[in-house]
Structure formats: structure tokens, C-alpha cells
């Protein structure tokens, strides 16, 4: 496995110098953040990211994310222009040495939580999702106060209502069709440039606000991989996104998709799933701290020859650190070290 770490660019309080001091760190996971969704990234911006990363002694091989424009997900006529731009981005990133691109196909909302600073018993804070709170939000109500944290701030409230309404006339099958159309255009480009595309599961892995969500479970991941049956059409196995539903057997999926050579990127994090579908809380990476058996997941990857990128996903805020929720230095660094420890043990036991 190649250990990696997400970095939000020069504005990030966590510096490349911090990140390189984490033992075993291989790659930076980053993106060009100043270009609107759907447009082409400049070669200069890409080259600048590469230069900064390499000067810090790290590899520039993973992008998270090249976002997919809503018109592609909605299947609107403008999608062909956005898909052409997407292919151009893949080519430019490949020229700069990128090997893996993470993206998602969630309508409107990327990851959704109800609180970003929930205080855990040990005084650390973490991201949580309480279904009861989500149920109280109706994005289409005229008086609705759309304030769930983590949402794309680039939408005005009116725009948000409009785009949510557009999805209302769409079924899950329509979204599958639009995903297939996108993949059929993008995967051949990725294959010809040697880039692995890695879709991120929907987070959480169920429908919210009546919007279709399809990258949610084993059955749907099977279907996804068959849409374009090419190794460059792969997944980001996000343990927390899949694992927040007790119905998903993340250990089984890790082993199965690794054996198929279709996991290109892993987001490793633990969640505590609340009973009766009441939601989940993000926890420290250690298995004992949440519902997921992190050792079993890594063992399934290891046993099945996983050789891709892995990063500690969200961390708690600990030791007084402030900043971007889920993306502080300390707890993610602890997570990285935990992953290193498990992997070293697996390597040596199997030797
Ligand atoms: C949240 C992340 C997601 C992820 C995208 C991938 O912290 O896991 O925002 O980057 O869904 O496209
Ligand atoms: Mn993730």
C-alpha cells in the first residue's frame, strides 16, 4: 500500500512539512481548488501543485477530486461539453504524473453531516450524522433554512432549491444511465493515459432528501464495475461511507474488490453506527473505538494483493487543534501510524 494524506493546498493549516514527517508517508492527495466545477484546470496550477509536493519530498500521484458537474449527473445537453473538459483534465493530470483520480457521483450534496464538532466523552470532537436532525430539514420548503454543515457553499439557497427540484423528476435508473454515459466517455481516456478512476461511495450510503443515491452497497458496486468493465474503472473504498450502514459487509467488499484489482484508493476511518438507523458518529481509527473491524478490513485488502493508495480519512479534533473539521493533522497522523502498524504486521506475518 502507498500511504497518502489529503492536503488542501497552500491555504491548508496542515503544511506539507508537517505531512512529510509522518512515518512512511508516500503521496499527497490534493486538487486544484480555484476553478469552477466543470472547467478545465490550468497546466500552471497543476504544475504548481506538483512542484510544491515534490519539493516536500512527496509524490504527486493522487487527485481528490475532479468533481463531476451536475449537468452530467442530470443528463442535460451541456454534459458533452463538461465531459470533454473532464477528459481534458484527465489528460493534463496524467501528463503531470497523476495515477489515480477520486470523484463521486452524488447528486447535489457531497458528504453530509449534522454536526462537525460533536464532543466525545474524551473531550475530542468529531463529525456526526443524526437521522432525526436530517429528517427535520426540507431543502425545498420555501422557508427552509438550509444549514447542514459541509454543504457546497457555492450555491445560493435559490440555486440549491432549483437543482434539488430538477432531481425530483429523476429516478435512480436515470442516474445510472447518466453515470454509464459519463463512464463510457471518460474511462477510455483514462485507460489511454494510464490513470485509474476511483469513484467514492455516497456518504452516507443512502438517499437523502429524496435525491437518488446509487453508489451505496455491494450489489450496486457490482453493477457499477460492470457498466464499463475495465480495470481503470475502479473504486475508492471509503470504509466509513460504506460502514455507516450496518447492512454493508465492508470486510467482504474490501477482499472481493481488491481481488478483482478494482480498488485503487482506500479511505480508512472508523464509525460508530447507532442502533435503529439513528445515524453514526465518526471515531478514532482504532477498531475498538467504533463499529468497524479495521484490522479485518486491512487484512482483506492485504490478503488480496491490494497495492494502491490509502489515506487516513477524517480524524477527530484533538489536543486543542482547530481548523477544517475532520482534516486536522494530529488525529489523521495517529490514523496513519495505526495503518502503518497493521500493515507492517500483516507483511511480516505473511512472510
Ligand atoms: C470527505 C471526502 C469527500 C470526497 C469526495 C470524493 O471528506 O471523503 O468529500 O472527497 O466525495 O469525490
Ligand atoms: Mn471518504
Could you walk me through the main structural features you see in this protein, from its secondary elements to its overall organization?
- The protein is α/β, with parallel strands linked by helices.
- It has 12 helices and 12 strands.
- The strands form 2 sheets. An 8-stranded parallel β-barrel has the order 1-2-3-4-7-8-9-12, surrounded by 4 helices.
- Helix 8 links the parallel strand 7 and strand 8.
- Helix 4 packs parallel to helix 7.
- The protein is globular, with a radius of gyration of 19 Å.
- The two termini are 16 Å apart.
- Bound molecules: D-mannose and manganese (II) ion.
- The site of manganese (II) ion has 5 residues, from loops.
Q: Which segments are poorly predicted (pLDDT under 50) over 5 or more consecutive residues?
A: none
Looking at the structure, what is the overall shape? globular
User: How much beta, percentage-wise?
Assistant: 15-25%
How many alpha or pi helices? 12
Helix share, percent: 25-40%
Main sheet? 8 strands, parallel, barrel
**How do the strands of the widest beta sheet line up side by side?**
1-2-3-4-7-8-9-12
End-to-end Cα distance, whole Å, is 16 Å
Could you say which small molecules are bound to this protein?
D-mannose, manganese (II) ion
- On the 0-100 scale, what is the average pLDDT? 94
Q: Number of DSSP strands?
A: 12
Query: What structural category do the secondary elements indicate?
Result: alpha/beta
Amino acid at each position: 500500500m502507498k500511504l497518502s494524506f489529503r492536503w488542501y493546498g497552500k491555504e491548508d493549516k496542515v503544511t506539507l512539512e508537517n505531512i512529510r514527517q509522518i512515518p512512511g508517508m508516500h503521496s499527497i492527495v490534493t486538487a486544484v481548488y480555484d476553478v469552477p466545477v466543470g472547467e478545465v484546470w490550468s497546466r500552471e496550477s497543476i504544475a504548481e501543485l506538483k512542484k510544491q509536493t515534490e519539493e516536500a519530498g512527496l509524490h504527486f500521484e493522487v487527485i481528490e477530486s475532479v468533481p463531476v458537474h451536475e449537468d452530467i449527473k442530470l443528463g442535460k445537453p451541456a454534459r458533452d461539453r463538461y465531459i470533454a473538459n473532464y477528459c481534458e483534465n484527465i489528460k493534463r493530470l496524467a501528463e503531470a504524473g497523476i495515477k489515480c483520480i477520486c470523484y463521486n457521483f452524488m447528486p447535489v450534496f457531497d458528504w453530509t453531516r449534522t454536526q462537525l464538532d460533536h464532543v466525545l466523552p474524551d473531550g475530542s470532537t468529531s463529525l456526526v450524522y443524526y437521522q432525526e436532525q436530517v429528517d427535520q430539514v426540507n431543502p425545498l420548503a420555501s422557508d427552509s433554512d438550509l444549514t447542514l454543515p459541509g454543504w457546497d457553499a457555492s450555491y445560493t439557497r435559490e440555486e440549491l432549491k432549483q437543482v434539488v427540484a430538477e432531481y425530483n423528476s429523476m429516478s435512480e435508473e436515470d442516474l445510472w444511465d447518466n453515470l454509464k454515459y459519463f463512464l463510457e466517455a471518460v474511462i477510455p481516456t483514462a485507460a489511454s493515459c494510464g490513470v485509474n478512476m476511483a469513484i467514492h461511495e455516497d456518504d452516507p450510503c443512502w438517499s437523502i432528501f429524496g435525491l437518488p443515491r446509487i453508489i451505496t452497497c455491494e450489489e450496486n458496486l457490482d453493477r457499477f464495475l460492470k457498466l464499463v468493465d475495465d480495470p481503470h474503472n475502479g473504486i475508492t473504498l471509503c470504509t466509513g461511507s460504506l460502514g455507516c450502514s450496518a447492512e454493508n459487509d465492508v470486510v467482504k467488499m474490501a477482499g472481493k474488490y481488491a481481488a478483482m484489482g478494482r480498488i485503487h484508493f482506500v479511505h480508512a476511518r472508523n464509525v460508530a453506527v447507532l442502533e435503529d438507523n439513528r445515524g453514526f458518529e465518526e471515531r478514532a481509527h482504532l477498531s475498538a473505538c467504533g463499529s468497524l473491524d479495521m484490522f479485518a478490513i486491512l487484512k482483506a485488502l492485504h490478503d488480496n494483493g491490494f497495492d494502491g493508495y490509502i489515506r487516513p480519512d477524517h480524524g477527530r479534533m484533538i489536543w486543542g487543534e482547530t481548523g477544517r473539521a475532520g482534516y486536522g493533522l494530529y488525529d489523521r497522523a495517529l490514523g496513519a501510524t495505526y495503518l502503518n502498524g497493521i500493515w507492517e504486521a500483516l507483511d511480516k506475518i505473511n512472510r
